[in-house]
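[READ THE FOLD]
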Amino acid sequence: MSNYTGIPQPIVAPVWELALRLRFQKPNVERIIKTTKTTLDPAIVSALIDATARRLPPDNTSTGVEKRNRRRERAKCAEDAFVASFSRLGYGFLNQVQQKKELMNVTPDILFMEPVLICGHLCRWLEFKDFFGFRANPFVAAQNKKQIRNYVTKIGDGAVVYKLGYETGYMKIPGAAIFREKEVIEGLELQSRSQMNRMDLSASGHSKSDREITESGERSIKHAQEDGKVHKTKLRHIAGAGPTSNRKKRHHKRSARKKQKISTATRNTNPH
């Protein structure tokens, strides 16, 4: 699993400052990257450009409304996919809709039924954000911090997960960890594979024991059967040895008597 600790502020700041200066011109990602020569991921640059829109008057034209709607839809899809990852891997939790039905005061994206270890941090809840977390984000940074402090106070320890990552040192709130989505998903999949491997090893061990017991039993039965056959053969041989020997003796006696009779008869008919 990758070791992510955020992106240093000196890397983020020049990109943000240029995007903010050019916000009325609505610069694209390519222009910002080319001008700043930044190594930031284009998705992060795009998120920084989007954030500058909060420093502009609201665009209430049909185009502006449609753009905001598309952004909300993307955010909802990203959140749903993140939550579905936990459901797919079998974690027990309540989503926001379920929490609202229970009339809960605060509703993070995920409220675990039992605390879950996430990237080394024991979490009772998770909050997902589909953007990049950084200090200068207009209005949003302050709102996020207030929201997370409220979760810690009313629920306990948890974590906020940023889809695109975050600025190093951003949001230091006791009881609240901060992660990038990639590391969280990698950690979940690793835990799932480890659990499945343990289950497979356990099942394999039981199967081997059962197989060894069965094979041992079959060998014992086979040996017993073979020993029984030998024993029966010996018994038959021993039982048959007496009568056979006696029959031979009686046969020899009868033959001797018969020869004696023939010899006597011959002498009687041929006197000297």
About this structure: Confidence is low (pLDDT under 50) at residues 227-249, 265-272. The chain is about 60% helix and 10% strand. The CA atoms of residues 62 and 138 lie 24 Å apart.
